[in-house]
Amino acid sequence: MPLQVRPGSRIAQVNVSARAVQATRARASSVRAALCLAILAAGAGCMTSKVDETRQMASSIQANESIVLLTKPQLEGVGTEGDFLSCVQEKLGGELVHPQEGQSSKRLKDGAVPFKIYGEQQFTDAMFPWFEPSTAPANAAGLKTLLERPGVTERLTQIGVRYVVWLDGNTRKTNGGGSVACAVGPGGGGCFGVGWWDKEADYVATVWDLQSASELGTVTTDVTGTSVLIGAIAPIPIITPVQSTACNRLSEQLRSFLVGSDLVGPAPVAAAGGG
Q1: In angstroms, what CA-CA distances link 71 with 86, 89, 263?
Q2: Could you tell me which of 116, 273, 143, 155 has the C-alpha nearest to residue 214?
Q3: Fewer CB within a 10 Å sphere, N or C end of the chain?
Q4: Nearest one of 183, 179, 221, 238 to 38, comparing CA atoms
Q5: 224 CB contacts (<8 Å, ≥6 apart)?
Q6: DSSP character for 62?
Q7: Helix, strand, coil % over all residues of the chain, rounded to 5
Q8: What's the predicted TM-score (pTM) here?
């Protein structure tokens, strides 16, 4: 005979408790999903970005010429992150002459290669000791003095690098608040509260022409964003990609600057196919 459960019996109470737990968990999942959707929708407006360009000379790079990206030497303070430099290298769309392990250049939509990108380490080794952090020129006047040294111009011609792009700046936390607390008790555990923090990614790319010993101009980007950590049963992080957005914005504008998209007249670059 099938087991019959009388209302109010211990077995019936256990069944009711199990259903109550399942319903509570379902409601918690619904609340968590709603919070995620709401924060993600609001997150679209939690980041601002600005890109500026200043050109001092009308010059553009050719497809067979090379640039090198270097982090500007810092006597004090925090310098530009190595992973940001690698990101810009990949996103510029040029052919990487000395790619790092696992690194590949991002091809443009038409497959064209606007220029070549020489490796940072290979460049400093080839030009030793002139571009070491303690001896690298700090301005166009210092660059002109350096190019007058015996053998420097010949070495640059040998490795084929014409432009140096100095990257300066970093990503830093600027503000924050709130808190998230997590606890475990006899009835279970969970996290509650809201925490947030602001980050700013501020970078400057200065372009030097090694052939004319002059500064062509600068490209700057400033990206700010707010990230949130929600304690809703389990911690839910909503991270704003401040640094990667700065890399994308700076790379796009820097590529346009290098190939001379803003110059009046015929297209300055006859882009060659990818090699």
Answers
A1: 11, 12, 27
A2: 143
A3: N
A4: 238
A5: 47, 48, 49, 174, 198, 199, 200, 201, 242
A6: -
A7: 30, 35, 35
A8: 0.76
